[in-house]
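Re: beginner question about structure tokens

> Can someone show what the tokenized structure looks like for a real chain? I only ever see the sequence side.

Sure, here's an example I had lying around. Input first:
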Amino acid sequence: MLRYLTVAGLASVLFLNGKSLKPAPPTTDAARKNYQTYCSSCHGEKVEAMVDRKWKHGIAKSDLIKSITHGYPDLGMPAWGQSLKEKEIDELADLILVSMETLDQYKFASKPKSNIFRSEGMTVRLDTVAAGLDSPWGLVFLPGGDMVVTDRSGSVYRLAKNGTKTKLTGTPEVVAEGQGGMLDIELHPDFAKNNVIYLSYSAGKTENGQKLATTAVMRARLTDTGLADQKVIFEAQPWSRTRHHYGGRLEFDRKGLLYVSVGDRGAEKVNPQSLESDCGKVHRMKDDGSVPSDNPYVGKAGARPTIFSWGHRNPQGVAIYPPTGEVWAHEHGPRGGDELNIVRKGKNYGWPVISYGINYDGTTFTNFTAKEGMEQPETYWIPSIGPSGLAFVTSDKYPGWKDNLMMGSLRFQYLNRCVLKNGKVVKQENLLPNLGRVRDVRMGPDGFLYVSVENPGYVFRLTPTAI
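And the corresponding structure tokens:
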């Protein structure tokens, strides 16, 4: 148990279980400010939460300095050696080390301090549905009441109503590196008759000695314990050495067509504005992966035929708007400029030609926030909230939220509510502060909202209550 430590007294001696530890290296307000400025958009607002993780490249101070200075671009980690002075990098490394030593003091609960919250005249309780997961990326509900959850580490679990958890067999191999792994899951519109499901994931292969990855979609038949009749129906081209910006969300529209979001894979200068690339796009296909004849670029020389919209950065939320059937999606910006869009046929959403964001190091990459022929977002966020998961509230159980749009915030660790009026965002509310990195949000067939958070991985139900 931590007996003595204050943030202000960083030079003092730490005591843990009665034992004196080495003096904590000094940190400065400048180091925390630099963390907020350069690191928080990807790693979260609190460095004390960020350090509670597996360290792939080492945790010695020299390892941290190397990582901060040179980065790991293929994994989505920028290099800061040109933006920060050596002293600033040294102080950031010290801040991380101090934060690791004080981790128990700042350990975040698996849910907020109170599991009761109020909004729009409603009282809502947060109930735990599943625990013991790592990073539950996507979830769906089966007709009998069971739930199927993907875990980014590579596993897919069937969660029975009685609480038992079964790891499914027959799932695809994934590249669980960087932002990759097992991603989203979706049921076929006629699942009750055919038991067909869809998985998106980061697929891997080796070519000319290089390990490559891409966003892929598998169609399969769900059995009691696994998958059968597996078929890969989509692999985004080109494959890449990078391990970030996979996109990966799946959603069926009212016509039974499947939408698949694919990120730019970190190649923003090449992929998003090229119709010859699948990356930085939202795709539309039939349930077997074939191309609808009315897709916007069918028959266009060099264009990828499944493309529905383009100019996206990294869309990690897709949902159908109940009143109109429109496809809505949000995507991650760089430092600022996360966007919420209505995804329209053949439209270009501008990345990286136009953006409300800047580079992670504070430099600019474009002088334009608008340009003819490129769509404007319905709303955008500065600073970035890191949106993930997307669901419209369709249940009468939440009268104050009907037709509102819910999404998670990976950065600020809350549930974000967007109030719509005549199809426009007119108000936002942050719910469940300090909930955790919210990865997915879904409406269940029972009329309740469900959210998943990662590291540690939980699935929660939002239950209206008379309390």
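Each token stands for a local structural state, so reading them left to right follows the chain. The radius of gyration is 22 Å.
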